[in-house]
Write a structure and sequence with these properties.
It contains eight helices and nine strands. By secondary structure, the protein is an alpha+beta fold. The strands form two sheets. The protein has a five-stranded antiparallel beta sheet with strand order 7-8-6-1-9. Keywords: Coiled coil.
């Protein structure tokens, strides 16, 4: 029996006893004996039902309370995470503001030089460019499907006899992507000779000597009033070591691009020759 049914039955008995109370006084109680006996049975069942329903309510309450505590714990964890994240963001913001202020002070107080950063390496280590003399052979013949076939075809055309006749040297042959083969030679003249021999054969192969790119450097903190085309002259005028280096006809320094940074100075990307590259990295800064 449900709780509501139990209450309905109890209300019926309450009404029954109210009705008895208003009956004429001459009516004997013996007439209600059977109903009163039924009430005792009902009351016993009623109490048991209430006890059972009370236990159910206790279990439901405990489960609801446990669930509420679980939700509360989760909310506390979320709240702690939000506070932690907020504090981390504040710490990052403070660090960035401090860094920005330091950079601004450095820009205002120290305008005599700009920092140099390598655009291709992370560590300012001593870099000695390795001289690799290479020639790339490409297959223009559509019947050749991959670089291994190109290498096989090249060896069939550029045989030992042709190598001896033209006095050329090849130290290594490496198949690379897109049906190409890389030939390593001990000198630049060997590369040129190999390329000329292959191209003069007109055998469906094309040899090219790749142009070696110069290393790049990033200069920070350059005053925006200094024009890109004037930067080399300004550097040479203010930095004696760099001036002596660039007086060598084999050395070069040219501006590729520049951009205004957040603190009002310029970032400049330079294309430099290997010796100048090494010197600038060793110095770490240039006077402007």
């Amino acid at each position: 029996m449900s709780f509501n049914d139990n209450i309905k039955s109890a209300n019926k008995w309450i009404q029954y006893f109210k009705d008895i109370s208003i009956i004429h006084g001459n009516t004997g109680l013996s007439q209600f004996k059977d109903e009163i006996l039924k009430f005792t049975d009902f009351f016993e069942v009623f109490v048991k039902n209430l006890e059972r329903q009370l236990e159910v309510f206790k279990v439901d309450y405990k489960n609801a309370n446990d669930q509420a505590l679980s939700y509360k714990k989760e909310l506390n964890l979320v709240h702690e995470e939000l506070i932690k994240e907020k504090n981390e963001k504040l710490a990052i913001k403070e660090t960035l503001l401090k860094k920005s202020a330091d950079l601004e002070r450095e820009r205002i107080n120290v305008k005599s030089y700009s920092s140099i950063v390598s655009s291709s390496v992370n560590k300012r280590e001593e870099i000695v460019p390795k001289m690799d003399y290479v020639c790339i052979v490409d297959a223009v013949d559509n019947t050749i499907m991959d670089s291994k076939q190109t290498l096989s075809y090249l060896n069939s055309k550029l045989d030992y006899k042709k190598i001896i006749e033209n006095n050329i040297k090849i130290t290594k042959q490496i198949p690379i992507r897109n049906k190409k083969v890389l030939l390593k030679c001990p000198s630049k003249s060997d590369c040129v000779a190999v390329g000329n021999v292959i191209n003069n054969m007109n055998c469906g192969l094309l040899a090219k000597i790749p142009v070696k790119k110069k290393p790049r450097l990033l200069i920070l903190g350059v005053e925006k009033e200094i024009l890109d085309q004037d930067l080399k002259e300004v550097i040479m005028a203010q930095n004696e070591q760099i001036k002596h280096c660039l007086e060598d006809s084999n050395e070069s320094l040219e501006v590729i691009t520049s951009k205004i940074d957040r603190v009002g100075t310029k970032m400049v990307v330079l294309n430099v020759s290997p010796r100048t590259y090494k010197l600038l990295l060793e110095l770490g800064h240039v006077f402007l």
